[in-house]
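During the no-cost extension, the postdoctoral fellow (Dr. R.K.) reprocessed legacy sequence entries with the updated structure-token encoder. One reprocessed record is reproduced below for audit purposes.
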Amino acid sequence: MMLSFFDQFMSPTYMGVPLIALAITLPWILYPAPTSRWVNNRLLTLQGWFINRLNQQIFLPINQGGHKWAILLTSLMIFLITLIILGLLPYTFTPTTQLSLNMAFAVPLWLATVIIGMRNQPTAALGHLLPEGTPTPLIPVLIIIETISLFIRPLALGVRLTANFTAGHLLIQLIATAAFVLLPMMPTVAILTATVLFLLTLLEVAVAMIQAYVFVLLLSLYLQENV
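Re-encoded structure tokens follow.
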């Protein structure tokens, strides 16, 4: 029985229990725990340097009130990167190919930024719906357009993650299948195809880091508008 290429995106179950919860919990076990010693090992030093550089890049344009989100957004980015890279291993499942999970990340955080803006500076938050100097006849139309674009933001965050990694995993599976089929018939072409597959896997790792960074960066921009 031949399986569909899309079967890899189905949430695996064991005895009727979905294993997506295990796939989400497992990355936290892999992170090294912080220590109170003055001198850390190389892994902890590299982890601290990476987190510091990330915070500087994301929170530099945001005022002091938005820095409270540093731990949340940094943890989210590291978590997304780990989930996606683990999903590139053979016989594993990538939770970020599920739109429901990505929307569960995007909607609450986007909604929190909107609520913060409406609570702290309601006039400025509502002012984003109507650019200054808009002609009077265009005011109703622009308010509707800006409102729609506001509510599309979390959908764009979730769909961007889902589409990128669904397409990447499908392409990897197609090329891997082609390499296995060509191996007995044309070994040279199969080796070239396997080389392309290896390069594509490296590209997918880079895409994982970039997409996780873009996800957190867009959330920080939404936060910057409302604090």
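The two ends are 56 Å apart (CA to CA). The beta strands are 13-14, 17-18. The remaining legacy entries will be reprocessed before the final report is submitted.
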